[in-house]
């Protein structure tokens, strides 16, 4: 049976909702799924999985510190093991899905794409094929004006049940494609 690892950090619950939706979709697609927070994934070898899903909110245009620290540590480890090669050749059967939640009260998705691209680059260096790079709007917790008056309009309650259902469906399709 093919397997997947989902590693995510969530400070307000938005990224966690997405992680659990992805988990359900991947399981419905026939994968064995492990779900971990960054500190629980420090000793896990990403290369034992067919798919690694990495999720983080965008915090000041970057992945959350626990995710960034984990990815830096993995890069250093895999480099020391000789797994990071010039030109980043793809490793057969190794895939990654990047997901990033954001509220974007100031500039919208432009606040999230640097975080997603940063996470993606680590997996590109690991030799993983990127099967998705998802950006999901989530309610801004802590300041109502950033959830109602920002560039994205009223984002209270996001991600919605309908949006999470689509994420499940899309994750199921990815699982079936592996």
Describe the fold and architecture.
With 178 residues, the protein is α/β, with parallel strands linked by helices. It has one domain: 3-Layer(aba) Sandwich (Rossmann fold), CATH 3.40.50. The chain contains 5 helices and 6 strands; from the N terminus they run E-H-E-E-E-H-E-H-E-H-H. It has helices spanning 14-28, 65-80, 113-126, 144-148, 161-177; strands spanning 3-8, 32-36, 51-59, 62-63, 95-102, 129-137. Strands 1, 2, 3, 4, 5 and 6 form a 6-stranded mixed β-sheet that branches. The longest helix is centred in the C-terminal third of the chain and has 17 residues, at 161-177.
Sequence-ordered SSE layout with sheet pairings:
Blueprint: E1 3-8, H1 14-28, E2 32-36, E3 51-59, E4 62-63, H2 65-80, E5 95-102, H3 113-126, E6 129-137, H4 144-148, H5 161-177
Parallel strand pairs: 1-2, 1-3, 3-5, 5-6
Antiparallel strand pairs: 3-4
Helix pairs in contact: 1-5, 2-3
User: What fraction, in percent, of the residue positions are helical?
Assistant: 25-40%
Kindly estimate the percentage of residues that lie in beta strands according to DSSP.
15-25%
Biggest β-sheet strands, sense, barrel? 6 strands, mixed
Provide the number of structural domains.
1
The number of distinct helices, counting runs of at least 4 residues, comes to 5
Please report the distance between the alpha carbons of the first and last residues.
11 Å
Based on the coordinates given, report the CATH architecture.
3-Layer(aba) Sandwich
* SSE string, helices as H and strands as E: EHEEEHEHEHH
Number of strands: 6
**Estimated structural class:** alpha/beta
Shape verdict: globular
């Amino acid at each position: 049976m093919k397997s997947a690892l989902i590693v995510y950090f969530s400070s307000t619950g938005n990224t966690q909702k997405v992680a659990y939706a992805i988990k359900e979709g991947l399981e419905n697609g026939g994968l064995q799924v492990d779900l971990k927070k960054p500190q629980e994934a420090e000793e896990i070898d990403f290369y034992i999985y067919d798919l690694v899903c990495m999720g983080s909110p965008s915090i000041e245009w970057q992945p959350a510190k626990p995710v960034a620290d984990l990815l830096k540590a993995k890069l250093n480890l895999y480099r020391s093991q000789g797994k990071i090669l010039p030109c980043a050749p793809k490793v057969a059967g190794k895939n990654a899905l990047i997901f990033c939640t954001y509220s974007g009260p100031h500039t919208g998705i432009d606040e999230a794409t640097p975080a997603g691209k940063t996470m993606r680059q680590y997996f590109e260096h690991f030799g993983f094929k990127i099967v998705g790079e998802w950006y999901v709007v989530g309610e801004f917790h802590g300041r109502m004006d950033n959830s109602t008056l920002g560039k994205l309009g009223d984002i209270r309650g996001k991600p919605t049940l309908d949006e999470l259902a689509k994420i499940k469906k899309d994750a199921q399709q990815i699982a079936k494609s592996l």
